[in-house]
Amino acid sequence: MSAPRFALFATAIGECAVAWNDVGLVGAWLPAAEPGSLRRTVERRVTAAIETVPSGAIADAIDAIQRLLRGAPVDLRAVPVDWSVVPELARRVYEIARDIAPGRVVTYGQVARQLGGDVDARRVGQALGANPFPLVVPCHRVIAAEGRLGGFSAPGGTALKQRLLAIERARPDGPPGLFDAIDAPAAEGSAISPPSASAPASAPTRSPPAL
Fold it and tell me: Looking at domain 5-75, does it have CATH number 3.30.160?
């Protein structure tokens, strides 16, 4: 297997990054708290990674992430991921999270019930807090009970989680205004107009990459 590679790229919320190997992504990063520090963060996390101009499936994945952060309902489930970099329980949690469409949210407890066994909401939260693939594994779409946001371990914390949900126009059952737009960009080709609670979510656009 060749050395891992990484790329930094601009998005509507700031500079993001992905790293990958011959199997798929081994990491993804949201904007760093300190401008200009993201490259160092990636290089610390992924040993011997080489900065590369992406092509093929990875270029498609980056394009899909950029469109998602501009407000398009993009489905990132086709983005290839190397699951060998995460523990088994985390992989199971992440696979469930990947099935949550843009504009939808579920609770930590709901994910735990899907997993069954002795897995509870706390263990789901711990796995999501260690998620190395934010956006590709949309941990921001998993919230606490009663419409509360819950935690978010990425730089920016819960304010960034709320912003991501606002970009996606998420409308869970919960306190009005919890996910209302704060600096959320309009969806491509249209202005944001949050749907009513009874309105169906728009169908996500499938992203094509496969290595």
Answer: yes
